[in-house]
Design goal:
The chain has six helices and nine strands; from the N terminus they run ββαββααβββααββα. The protein is an alpha+beta fold. The strands form four sheets. It has a three-stranded mixed β-sheet, with no helix packed on it. It has a two-stranded antiparallel ribbon with strand order 1-2. β6 and β7 form a beta hairpin. The protein is extended and about 70 Å long. The protein starts with 8 loop residues before the first strand and ends with a helix.
């Protein structure tokens, strides 16, 4: 950490090229001979990803939970860390339904308000930079908590499933994998046909 234009370092200590590779071999051998064993008895040797129990974040609060959601029971059963959500007590000063529809009808006082999300009931605030952005882009103040807005954006993505499809360009028989399911209406082209069509 904090090394500039250095090489052959281990824990910020400089080694010669030969010493470095000797040390790497010793470290690998040590990690294989004395592996880390977690609370569930899983063995972690050299080259494996860090044990889950060393993760500073709960599975449920990381992005992975957006893509591969698990229940609390499944998370704990697999030995992943889980963080209980803290219920912060905020005094709501503005209901989402009372926010003006036009940003021009909103002044800086919105920055002092604690807004209640119209869907989840969670409290949120508008930051000065956010407010300036809404004014500059002529966008109304959102009525949803940032987490709810994020969930709505995620709903637009294709599922994490690959389907084998054939190119729909006339006369092309190329097969490929895509996230577009066979029953979807979009025209699906292979890379070559797509590039010919677009360029």
């Amino acid at each position: 950490i904090g090394l500039k234009n250095k090489q052959y370092c281990i824990l910020n200590k400089q080694y010669t090229k030969e010493e470095y590779f000797e040390m790497i071999e010793k470290i690998k051998k040590h990690m294989d001979n004395m592996p880390y064993i977690d609370a569930k008895g899983r063995v972690y040797k050299y080259g494996e990803f860090f044990p889950y129990e060393l993760c500073p974040f709960g599975y449920n609060e990381a992005v992975i939970n957006d893509h591969f959601p698990l229940t609390k029971e499944e998370i704990l059963e697999r030995g992943y860390p889980y963080k209980e959500k803290q219920d912060n007590k905020y005094i709501i000063t503005l209901k989402a339904k009372d926010i003006p529809d036009d940003i021009k009808d909103t002044d800086d006082s919105i920055l002092n308000e604690v807004i209640e999300c119209e869907e989840s009931g969670k409290a949120f605030k508008i930051t000065p930079f956010e407010f300036q952005f809404y004014q500059r882009m002529n966008i109304p103040i959102p009525r949803l908590h940032p987490d709810e807005r994020y969930k709505k954006r995620l709903a637009f993505r294709n599922p994490m499933v690959l389907y084998t499809r054939k190119c729909m360009h006339e006369g092309c028989n190329n097969e490929f994998e895509t996230t577009y399911a066979p029953e979807r209406p979009e025209m699906i082209y292979c890379k070559e046909c797509y590039q010919r069509e677009v360029y």
